[in-house]
Design goal:
globular, 2 strands, electron transfer activity, Cytochrome C3, binds heme C, single chain, mainly alpha, c3_cytochr_TmcA, two-stranded antiparallel sheet, metal-binding, 137 residues, transport
Length: 137
């Protein structure tokens, strides 16, 4: 008698597939930047269609945005895709002593997004172009 595929193995296989597929879905479905770190947001959520944006902007290097950290310094080679920016950049650093010496989240986003648009001369610079009232959560 040979029963090679155990139900447990199948279950684990399915589970690992799910883990691989889920982040890909959420990232390609993304149309605005996650607001959870800003519970009292003043502006509509910033428009950011992750995959479409990066295709149009020809950004293949994930580390251009998802930089990692080495010895407390930002390190684009040590990428962090899948880790929320807010894990390292607190919306309110005063409330999080571990992150006090790091750039606050809102500033980090503005430096990264607006910074590249300024540098390349492409992409929106005006508040209302990113924080568009039509963008939905
Ligand atoms: C290139 C896009 C872009 C531009 C231009 C931009 N922002 Fe933002 N802003 C963001 C992103 C991304 C976040 C973080 C995610 C979010 O809040 O939607 C953010 C967050 C914020 C927040 C914190 C969250 C909130 O709503 O309270 C404020 C306030 C804000 N921006 C105000 C402004 C103002 C004022 C301007 C113009 C001077 C501006 N932004 C221009 C992308 C942009
Ligand atoms: C122009 C900047 C930019 C580039 C380039 C970029 N991303 Fe992102 N990505 C973001 C932002 C901003 C978020 C939202 C982060 C947050 O919520 O903290 C995000 C979120 C994600 C998420 C989490 C999705 C979710 O819904 O939580 C994954 C996974 C991801 N990116 C993977 C990638 C991969 C892989 C690449 C390279 C092929 C890449 N990203 C390139 C900006 C970028
Ligand atoms: C693993 C931790 C980590 C993650 C995740 C991370 N960062 Fe950073 N980031 C750092 C560190 C460390 C620095 C250097 C110290 C500083 O300036 O805050 C830095 C610096 C920056 C700077 C430069 C600030 C300056 O003054 O030049 C920007 C902009 C920035 N991060 C934006 C982002 C954005 C946007 C995301 C999410 C897409 C992100 N970071 C994700 C750790 C991280
Ligand atoms: C490394 C460079 C770079 C970074 C970082 C970047 N962008 Fe852009 N963005 C571009 C370029 C280039 C374009 C113009 C693409 C085109 O040719 O249409 C653009 C276009 C846009 C547009 C208009 C086109 C569209 O997709 O709707 C929006 C909105 C936008 N960016 C938002 C953001 C936000 C929000 C962030 C930060 C989370 C961000 N960008 C970070 C380079 C960048």
């Amino acid at each position: 008698m040979r029963r090679t595929t155990s139900p447990l193995l199948l279950f684990l296989l399915g589970l690992s597939l799910l883990v691989w597929v889920l982040p890909a879905f959420s990232q390609s479905d993304m149309v605005v930047v996650n607001r959870d770190p800003f519970p009292k947001a003043q502006r509509p959520a910033a428009k950011f269609e992750h995959d479409a944006h990066n295709e149009k902007a020809k950004l293949e290097d994930c580390g251009a945005c998802h930089h990692g950290e080495t010895d407390g310094k930002m390190d684009p080679a040590n990428t962090s895709e899948g880790t929320p920016c807010a894990d390292c950049h607190a919306a309110n650093p005063a409330a999080d002593p571990k992150l006090q010496h790091k750039t606050p989240l809102r500033r980090a986003y503005h430096l990264q997004c607006v910074g590249c648009h300024e540098k390349t001369g492409k992409g929106p610079l005006a508040c209302g172009q990113c924080h568009a009232p039509t963008a939905q959560e």
